[in-house]
Design brief:
By secondary structure, the protein is of the alpha+beta class. The chain is 40% helix and 13% strand. The termini are far apart.
Length: 334
């Protein structure tokens, strides 16, 4: 069997079930034949059955996205968090202590399977718990900078996204002028918000939404540090807030910060960046789907993308963000 990933547009086409099982067995494990694909698109993630043991999670990194040094920095950050008694699911080392493994042209990592469910963030007590653990995580994140991982930036999330969508003609012709005018206005305001806000950058989870947290016994187990980057602390906090009413979000923020500031100081000025970061995420998400559209998994899993309706709704969402950016930011609870 040839397990070498050919140089094709879709390298994951070479990641067959046999390749996955062969990769895990090459690391000294005996698979029982069970191989369940998990809900992951940027990378490919599988739950692999192991004879007489708990299943393992095998994560195969998307080729040419992160360098080996960038992946290693992700793994090292996870290990550092675990050393500080944080509930993070780190990659398992091999006999030589290596956490990046290679097989068939793919870099991959193995993780223990850890049970849990998404946190119920409408429970204010849970928000305070999340705040405590994020405060502890950010204390570690402040200790040193990333060397290889990128930072959250307007260039990457906004300018590069707009350029890719326009140059590759994803935006319908009749919506191009509206999209360009609107995104120009958004970027100007976002640049202003960043320039007027003093903040320190630190190592972050980077994608701390409820789907990347396994709640178990009142403890949030943090998983999937694939998007770990440098940025302002508020990036890991704003995604915990839900609902469209300001009073509701303010109450949630108060609880998060009540827990957070038990362990880490929070710069209240960063609240000025919440809607900017939300807008950058929305813009980057559309460009992410577009960049991956030649991956066969994406048209299958996101059939609603790249339709006239999708882009009309996207522009409407961005218009709502333009209005939100002009509203006063949430405030510190004290």
């Amino acid at each position: 069997m040839n397990d070498t990933a050919p140089s094709t547009v879709h390298p994951y086409e070479a990641l067959t079930p046999d390749v996955v099982l062969n990769a895990v067995e090459a690391e000294g494990y005996f698979c029982d034949g069970r191989n369940l694909a998990l809900n992951s698109y940027e990378n490919r993630v599988y739950q692999v059955g192991i004879e007489d043991a708990q299943p393992l999670i095998a994560k195969f990194y998307r080729p040419n996205r992160w360098s080996r040094a960038q992946i290693q920095e992700e793994h090292d950050f996870c290990a550092e968090l675990v050393e500080n008694d944080l509930p993070v699911v780190p990659p398992l080392p091999d006999a030589d202590g290596n956490t990046i493994r290679d097989h068939g042209g793919f870099m991959f990592a193995l993780f223990e399977r850890r049970g849990g469910h998404a946190p119920e963030l409408d429970n204010l007590h849970n928000l305070e718990i999340m705040g405590r653990f994020l405060g502890r995580m950010h204390n570690v994140g402040h200790l040193k900078p990333f060397t290889h991982r990128p930072a959250i930036s307007i260039d990457t999330y906004a300018f590069d996204s707009i350029e890719f969508l326009m140059e590759n003609r994803f935006i319908p012709m009749e919506l191009e002028t509206s999209y360009r005018t609107l995104t120009d206005d958004l970027v100007k305001i976002i640049q202003q918000r960043f320039s007027e806000t003093h903040f320190e950058t630190l190592r972050l989870h980077g994608d701390c939404h409820p789907g990347n947290v396994l709640w178990r016994d009142d403890i949030p187990n943090f998983v999937d540090f694939d998007d770990t980057r440098s940025g302002p602390a508020v990036q890991d906090l704003w995604m915990l807030l839900s609902g469209s009413e300001r009073d509701q979000q303010q109450g949630q923020l108060n609880k998060v910060l009540s827990g957070y500031q038990q362990f880490c100081r929070f710069n209240g000025g960063e609240l000025n960046l919440v809607e900017s970061l939300r807008t950058l995420r929305i813009m980057n998400y559309s460009a992410w789907l577009a960049r991956r559209w030649e991956d066969p998994a994406f048209p299958h899993s996101f059939p609603w993308f790249n339709t006239q309706r999708y882009w009309s709704d996207h522009i409407l969402t961005l218009r709502e963000q333009l209005a939100a950016l002009q509203e006063p930011p949430l405030s510190m609870p004290w």
